[in-house]
Amino acid sequence: MAIRPLLTKDFATENLEQLAVYERTGGYSGFKQALEMQPDALVDMVKKSGLRGRGGAGFPTGNKWGFLPKGMYPRYLVCNADESEPGCFKDRYLMEESPHQVLEGILIASYAIGCNLAFIYIRGEYLPQHEALEKAIDEARQAGYLGKNVLGKGYDIDVILHRGAGAYICGEETAMLTSLEGYRGEPRLKPPFPAVKGLYGKPTVVNNVETVCNLPHIVLNGAEWFAAIGTPTGSGTRLWCMSGHVNRPGNYEMENGTPIRELIEEHGGGVWKNRKLKAFQPGGASMMVLLPQHLDVGLDFDAIAKAGSLAGAGAMVVMDETTCMVDAARRYVKFFEHESCGKCTPCREGTFWMANLFDQFEAGEAKPGDIDLLLDIGYNIDGRSFCPLGDASTWFPRSVIKFFREEFQEHISERGCPFKKSVQEAVA
Amino acid sequence: MALAKSTAEQIKDLAARYPSSQSAIIPALWAAQHEQGYVTDEAMHEIAEHLGLPPSLIEATASFYSMFLTRPEGRHDVVICINAPCMLRGADEMVAYLERQLGVRAGQTTKDGAITWHSTIECLGACGGAPMMQVDHRFEEDLTPERIDAIIERLREEPAPHAAEPKPEVAAAPAVTPAPVKPEKARPAARPRTKKVQN
């Protein structure tokens, strides 16, 4: 198991974002082949492939499609391109380099679930990616891949590209649907799940950009072929977004199950400035911190979960020995405070309270009981929030307290951050 | 200031595309901001009329999303990400450097009206090129003090993006991949758009 370019295999091709070039690399042959199949056979194929959603939760894609109630139409597909998890920048890369691959995946998913109108909800900040998709949709429409009676097969499909306007919460699927309906992006209660009652109250599937990008390859090569890649419970590859203190940050597509060590040390070139690794964080801002002793864990949903964190949306944030773990946790807590939609009290008030306490730690004003207070607040947010945003705001800081409690104590005893170099000094 | 006729037409067209005209609220706000640089109360009332919805609903939506501006700014809008992945690679130092070079605090505009140093910001999805800033709607990655100087110098000369003629732009460097990385390529001419903002 190692580097395994699947979605990114043609990314070195010049002008891949153009339809003619994409077609030359085999583009849209997956969609053409899918149109020759019965939609139910496609759903079965994706179930058998073992493809799990790449947006964060890792839910089996075919099963998600299978939850749509029979005979209820219209149905909608929403492609989640609202990538906003700190540390993640894979969907941006996929949309920028090969927008047609995203679109082809959407067309296959739409056909499989019997949807005639699909949406792409893209975060407002991704303007060049928006432009790339807009152009791809126009090209595909002119070429007859979308519109009425696609390729003469009697199937109608249209795609609306919908641009968000700056709200992390809209990456949560029910908040995304609320936002797509024109409202403030607040989450809804589940159940009913979107598969039953989603966009405009109709059955809806929400799939991540990277998830749909896998579909053309599954259709062309078969479910067994895909299932053989990766691990038994995590088939395929994933794009890992490596950032922080590594020599070569960037996106790396790895076969599932490859040891984390290979990603960081071999492909990322190891920790920068010849420093030692202190900690790393898979998954994104929400996920728990892991330590050098976890380097041999495989890049896989279940393996990372077993190690005490989550693979989430495929981030890999690397932290060297000079990192102040309290400050790292503070950044994430402040992020969640800023992005809390305000709908439920545990998240709205709790993230605010945690952020205040973290500021006090960095400013040297924290008191001995404040470490346990943070844990207590975290305990009272997690599982008591309306949506996963609140829960997730507590996971990283609580894991940091678990592994680096002494750093919090030093912030108290030294009345400030022991790691901080003066900013003025740094830029002088 | 009333919306231009072409913007009003665009909003009506948008409303017709969606199964519900309410879904056109965010696209309509983008259209208004694109034309006028920010979203005025008058524009929100007009959007409400075109979509056949109460004005309160338009404002409720507009006020939720951080990218809609409610007041005019300088010609260019600048934000810097300070979330953890950027912090690890020196974002705080870049913020301090930018403030020193511009001589303004967050939320202020330079005296020549060229640059609004809007604020620090949360993750924009450029962690592989950290530290990063966003200028108008484009990412500037792998920041150094020298790069910031060059960007400032450029912005002091350049017109506002929505006033500029479309011209080819060079995309941000492609992220590192195991596959051979192709050289930076020229992107198609950027459509002039309004400035972005985050609180």
Lateral arrangement of strands in the main beta sheet of chain A? 3-2-1-4
Portion of residues in beta strands of chain B equals 5-15%
For the secondary structure, the number of strands of chain A is: 10
- How far apart are the first and last residues' alpha carbons of chain A, in Å? 46 Å
Q: Would you report the number of β strands of chain B? A: 7
Going by CATH, what is the homologous superfamily of the largest domain in chain B?
Glutaredoxin
Q: Structural class of the secondary structure composition of chain A? A: alpha/beta
Largest beta-sheet details of chain A:
4 strands, parallel
Number of helices of chain B: 7
- Please state the oligomeric state of the protein chains shown: heterodimer
Q: Provide the CATH superfamily of the largest domain in chain A.
A: NADH-ubiquinone oxidoreductase 51kDa subunit
Percentage of residues in DSSP E strands of chain A: 5-15%
Question: Which spans of chain B of ≥5 residues are poorly predicted at pLDDT below 50?
Answer: 164-199
Total of domains of chain A: 3
- Strand arrangement across the biggest beta sheet of chain B: 2-3-1-4-5
